[in-house]
Amino acid sequence: MSALSLRLPDSIHRHIKELASKEGVSINQFIASAVAEKVSAIATEDYLQARAERADKAAFQAVLAKVPKREPLAGDEF
User: Fold this and answer.
1) 3-class secondary-structure state, position 63
2) pLDDT tens, position by position, 45-70
């Protein structure tokens, strides 16, 4: 594990302290968790973008063409 010195505005530090206390975790755990969530979100976005670039639009349209033509169920309409 490595250490990181981080400078935060007092207002953000105060909010982090309050949220960490509310969650029952240390400030360090709260920040580590928040950073992990952000890293995961960016990694997921990169993964989905890479998958989208490999997409075969013709194959997708072929699958959609197999969907039966009917009215949507109640509550599913636009």
Assistant:
1) helix
2) 999 999 999 999 999 999 999 999 99
Distances (CA, A) of 62 to 46, 59, 65, 67, 72: 26, 5, 5, 9, 20
In terms of residues, how long is the chain? 78
Query: If DSSP codes are grouped into helix, strand and coil, which group holds residue 2?
Result: coil
CA–CA gap between residue 31 and residue 20 (Å, rounded): 9
Q: Is the pTM of this model over 0.90?
A: no
Give the pLDDT confidence of 18-39 residue by residue, as tens digits.
999 999 999 999 999 999 999 9
State both tokens at 9.
């505005």
